Batch of 4 targets.
Target 1
Amino acid sequence: MTTTRPALDLSAVRTHFPALGLEQDGQPVVYLDNPGGTQVPQACIDAIAQYLASTNANTAGAFLTSQRTDAMLAEAHAAMADFLNAADPREIAFGANMTTLTFAVSRAIGRTLQAGDEIVVTALDHDANVAPWQALAEERGVVVRMAEVDTATCTLDMPDLREKINERTKVVAVGYASNAVGMINDVATIVRWARDAGALSYLDAVHYAPHAPIDVQALGCDFLVCSAYKFFAPHLGILYGRLPLLERLPAYKVRPASDEPPVKWETGTLNHECLAGLVATLDYLATLGRAHTDEDAAAFTGMSGRRRELHAALAAIQRYERGLAGRLLAGLRALPGATIYGLVAEDDLPRRVPTVALTIAGHTPRELAEALGRRGIFCWDGNYYALTLMERLGLEPTGGALRIGLAHYNTAAEVDRLLAALREIVGA
């Protein structure tokens, strides 16, 4: 006899997030701006305050608060290694944000390149995984080639990408999932293509990380970056890199800093209090995962402890969010004048995260966002730095698209409230 795996207990999940209690005009607000940054659990807030109250110090000192800080930083590296299934905590480096880390790594890789070497980027990506590589064309004389997007489905043109990877390719930089339209890329195949060509793979997982488990060892990628504030933690950037690469590449750093990773990649003093908050958020997710570990054990054989719990949590989140995304897309498809970008059929839900971009005839994206905002429903409009995609879709001159982004603390009732508001706004 088969059993159905339990859904997330939303009543318990939502109690962890104090921001969900915010009201506007007597109604709870609805956070559908999650692709721009998620809310954080109370444990994260408490950990930040506690660090500042009892641990605040710089590193490597011969006294209590510095020793506490050293222990917290070690725990932060270990916890993120668990989150990404990295083989070694030294493969995790922290920075201000994904963009800053990508500029740092691209500059380091650029020092090893010669004129005529090639880098492949894509038209689907956030500009943070495009512009740093394009800058190398001017700085180092490398050739940057852009793989195209199928505008009918907002998916990567995989044959075009494959054709652009050749014996001169040194880096393939691609997103795990589109931050604009939510489509998931076949990164395992792309990593394999890069490896077969002798190129490095650089994955932007900022938009994927809140929605599903990530296993860098299974992917075999060389680098992966994500942002903590997109998965319920403070504003931080995270870099995973294979240890031999982090050891070998020439990082820009001050002279007294260690030549050993991750310190050689973590320029200056880290944001200690926010890293304490990150650890607390990962502990929250691990707690969530403990309620689902048994159901997901088969998918995460070889993992144990917090690592297994974190991956089980993200698998549970993925299941729950697919149901919400199906409800959202069904309602949007029935909305008069709406154009949804990307795959929208129920069978295609495994190919997307619960982020939807749309336009509605007769209304600019900004007008829609403002009208929803007056109703206490928060959504983004514009291009969200997915500039090339919006240009390919012809949407940039008219203000891009309205973006609706779900997270695991959203509910079916909130989706229904959004749909009702949109019907009212367009007069349906």
Target 2
Amino acid sequence: MSRELDELLRVMVRLRAPDGCPWDREQTPLSLAPYVLEEAYEVVAAIESGESASLRDELGDLLLQVVFHAQIAAERGSFDFAAVAAGIRAKLIRRHPHLFATDGATPAVGSAAEQTVAWEDIKAREREVKGGADAGHLAGVPRALPALNRATKLSARAARVGFDFDHADQSADKVAEELAEVRQAAAQSGAPGAADSHLIEEVGDLLFAAANLARKLKVDAETALHGANAKFERRFRAMESLARERGEVFADLDIAAQEELWQAVKRAE
């Protein structure tokens, strides 16, 4: 390992030492879990910003989480950072047999799409070998994933064994069907402002169907929704700004006036 990485590992050992940092010493894998997610999202934000210095810093913060968890595991006698690195190295070699196999029997992979298929096939075989309680075609899809991302992965796994629509149009029809069921459940719901369990279930079905449609259209649903969130935020802030320029208080405007502002902002883009 490089000198810098060696130094980083030594710093973490010092932080976790009996006379080290009280905060670092009291952390557990469970207490650190939210930070892993937070740092991963900050890496994504840095990528989207296009700022290389920001990306460098955020990758460092994410690496810290890896080092932190590895150190805790080492203290418990489970594994250490070297084992983590060795494990991912072995996995990369195992899942790229066309590059690393020595028998010459593995066919070459000519495109990223072919590599994706080969990668998933190898993962599926690995799951079969592991077996156990979490066996099956949906095994190994992390429950901690964002719900939209997990919905996409679950439907993709099902599709690999034929449980899928043939065409995106059929997925779109399913979205329309689920939307109709949401409308019906909403009309039958109880007290205004209180969603009952049936309505919640139907909304969930609608969102799952929408994620499946995105997959059929080869659109990453999480990325698409992220973009939609950013667009809504940009337009909403522009509406508020335009209202101020007109001497109006946005919150005091009726829906028709707010919609006029929305359309004006859209036209200006």
Target 3
Amino acid sequence: MIRTTETSRNKFYQLISQYVPGNAVHYCYDLWMGCPFHFKIARRRQTKLGDYRYDPNGKEHSITINYNLNTYNFLITYLHEYAHLLATEKYGRKINPHGKEWQTEFRNVMFPMLSPLIFPDNLLKVLAKHMKRPKASTQSDPMLVKALRNYDSNPTDVLLLDDIQTGEIFAFKGNRFKKLESRRTRVLCHHILSGRKYLIPRIARIEKDV
């Protein structure tokens, strides 16, 4: 169990204030006070935006979130990971990580934040729709990814596979592909060198072929 001190409380408040919208700071702080956890700002990770872990020996929770997220994406990720903490506390560690228990807790902690005082209207509409049946990752929701991208520091620097036209050539992870057919969450692509076909997420970050 983590014991809080005035120093740790002040440190957390100052830290979270740097990363979430101003009107959400007190709410995020209150959640932390309700069930304190180790909190760390992490380097940029390609495969995840945040992470939750539980140490059964010390009975301590830990949450890490990537430093490079815009304030809205950071808040969503923070609440996503905190919902894991709540689900673990209430239902134990053997539940499906993104099953109905986690979905319920995520909706519960997100609901007070679904307000124009927190999110811009255009983002709020997409987020509210996402929260009806939240996915394991915001990265699995192309509409939400695109809406959040508008608030990145350099949104035009990020090109998604979904942004280019069918038939265009692009580079992804050092390989050249041709975009063939868009499906619900992935795109069928032709690998130029081998001739094989692969399914690549619609929201994969790519580079224009030169």
Target 4
Amino acid sequence: MLEARTALKSVPAYRPPLAGREGLRLDFNESTIGCSPRVLARLRSLDIETLARYPEREPVEPGVADFLGLDASQVLLTNGVDEAIHLLCSTYLDPGDQAIIVEPTFAMYAIFAQAEGARLVRVLSGENFAFPSAELLARIGPHTKFIAIANPNNPTGSAVDSDVLLEVANAAPQAAFLVDEAYFEFHGESILNSLASSKNLFVARTFSKAYGLAGLRIGILAGDAQQMASVRCAASPYNVNSVALAALPEALKDQDFVERYVAEVKAGRALLEWELHDLGFPYWKSRANFVLTRIGPAHAEFVQALRTRGILVRDRSSDPGCEGCVRLTVGSLEHTQMLIAALREVVVELVPQREIRA
């Protein structure tokens, strides 16, 4: 009888709660205003020939590399950051190798590493989700072949200084060290300029967040040119679709659009954090386009109460260290103000005796 590989039998399928997402979607950290008008115009101009041909990724990569200040040999366009993670695991992990992640974090690091038969080492964040650098360094050994860090991290929104990340990279030269910068635009700090000095460092970026292109599934994996040549061997030549490839150059050209949206998100993030403080909900300072807050035992009722008001947020209480926590995506200022108004109503509904600031 045909059976899946043994390694896959213990890997839980990741099924995001996508069904029935009607309303203001503040649950998956997507842009709430969509893509640049320039991107939309380019999409509307596509002809049937573009859709009939196999996609050509490589002609687009030099422009992306130039935007990043890198050589084209250092850059691979991917089907979102998910594929970038998958490619690194496929390229560098053998069964029995060790992969290290810091929890709580993005679920796909563990899933792709375990699917290759790697032994997963989970290092828990410190108090208030402080980065556990000493604990992480202590767990690195000769069999460590993959380390993944989201910076800023999802779902906490916390960020790690580049010098700390480089210390980890240098402590494990035999391991592919991925820094996932999916939320870079809202943070403004990157480790990308360290690629030349750290041959085992890889950086991933996405156009799903600040650029509003989540539906097109396009991302970037960057690294040392020699290492990227090996990664390309594991990648399909047609991994990024023609529509995404047509849209990406226009998205990169319209940095004014991206900067305006990022500025709104940062302003809204500050407003939301202040509101949570005023409402008495603990939260963690965020460097991303979301804020994690601890609601407590009523977390499920809180999420449902917002849903009945047409606002979707993400219950993260099952993540390690996130008991009773909910993640709130920050979008445009208008959408953040809608969220804040709903929060005030929900707090009164769930805890009627509380006094809420007018």
